[in-house]
Amino acid sequence: MSPKTELRGICNTWGYVTAFGVFQTHYNQMLSESPSAISWIGSVQVFLLFSIATFSGRASDAVFFKLVWGLGALLVLVGIFIASLSSTFWQLFLSQGLCLGIGSGLMFCPMLSLIPTYFSKHRSLAIGFTAAGSSTGGLVFPAVVEQLLPRIGFPWTMRVLGLLSLSMLLPYFIFFKPRMPPRKGGPIVDWEAFKDMSYLLFSIGMFFAFWGLYVAFFYIGSFAREIIGVNQATSVSLLLIMNGTGMPARILPNIVADRYTGPLNLLIPTILVSSLILFCWISVVQASNLYAFAVFYGIFSASLQSLFPASLTSMTVDLSKIGVRTGMVLTIVSFAALTGSPIAGALVQRGGESYLYAQCFAAASMAAGGILVTMARIHKTGFVVNARK
Question: CA of 169: how far to CAs of 71, 73, 77, 107, 259, in Å?
Fold first, then answer.
């Protein structure tokens, strides 16, 4: 199983998440709902992608790996094609939010937990190549929507996306194969893991980091149009830039982590710098500043998302439990992903269409996450600066 094949699978889970900004922009015009309400479609999708990971992760440790992944792929395709027939908020919520989210959740954790079993060295790099799939999807899907939507309309644009997903998912289903022997016994949740204070602090820290992570991805388009005054094409271009700059940033930090620092040591400054960039977003008042924000936040947020699973893997010594322990943390951060963007949308409305409160919420959440992950690292290694973790 190559990282290239894994990239195709991640592209069809996280790709739709990182591309949701372009759907948010279109649905703001298509539906008579508030931005906060519309963001629930994307937030529920992310929530289910993460939360179902506890069950799909345990299944990936057992004998149901291919069955669970295949069911997830089927639901992803069904959700996309049903969305093409949808015209109301609830129809899109059920298809793109629930159906696509459940399918993504069934696929994601088995794919993620499969990678470390193929690599005794350079695991972080392999995970980085795989994570680049979300940036690929974040580039491909918005570009397809921007080009096809005015030409063939929303229904056929979604059907084209469905056919693209099918072409990428089919090779993965044919070629992927679990390496570890099945672990038939054991609980769905490994409660003993939370007795490890470093694991607990890491889990809570990533909750706060993910609470603020997707606010910019969901709202940069509407911020660009409403506050900066750019046109629709420019607002989509900003999302493409944010996702495009993230592609090398999902690979290069993992090379550094493998060779020099370890993933956790690199994750901490990545979270803190991401927080600083979100605070800088508050001062953006013109298009050139917003382009700079999109580039830098795209780089560091992508590095964060790539180093997160690699750091989690480094905290799990027993590879036979890597699926369930990965799934547990993903479930914890799912609640952050579920509520973060709707909270930000409500804060935009509360601020009288100003984005200040939402920007402060995202930046402060990210800063709190960085502090807690730093505490996890200190608890695990002490104050030893050069300890590779």
Answer: 12, 7, 9, 10, 32
CA distance 70 to 75: 9
CATH of the domain at 120: 1.20.1250.20
Q: What is residue 120's predicted lDDT score, i.e. its pLDDT?
A: 60
CA dist 182 → 2, 65, 112, 190, 223 (Å): 21, 9, 16, 17, 48
Q: Does residue 182 form part of some domain? A: no
Per residue, the 3-state secondary structure of the chain, as one string, reads CCHHHHHHHHHCCHHHHHCHHHHHHHHHHHCCCCHHHHHHHHHHHHHHHHHCHHHHHHHHHCCCHHHHHHHHHHHHHHHHHHHCCCCCHHHHHHHHHHHHHHHHHHHHHHHHHHHHHHCCCCHHHHHHHHHHHHHHHHHHHHHHHHHHHHHHHHHHHHHHHHHHHHHHHHHHHHHCCCCCCCCCCCCCCCHHHHHCHHHHHHHHHHHHHHHHHCHHHHHHHHHHHHHHCCCHHHHHHHHHHHHHHHHHHCCHHHHHHHHHHCHHHHHHHHHHHHHHHHHHHCCCCCHHHHHHHHHHHHHHHHHHHHHHHHHHHHCCCCHHHHHHHHHHHHHHHHHHHHHHHHHHHHHHHHCCCCCHHHHHHHHHHHHHHHHHHHHHHHHHHCCCCCCCC
Gyration radius from the chain CA atoms: 19
Overall domain count for the chain? 1
Contact predicate 221/214, CB 8 Å: no
Give the domain range for residue 151. Answer: 3-176+188-381
Give the mean pLDDT per block of 10 residues along the chain (389 residues). 46 66 81 84 85 68 70 90 91 92 82 65 64 62 81 90 85 68 61 81 94 90 88 83 81 81 90 96 92 94 86 70 74 88 89 88 96 90 62
Residue 388 forms part of a structural domain: no
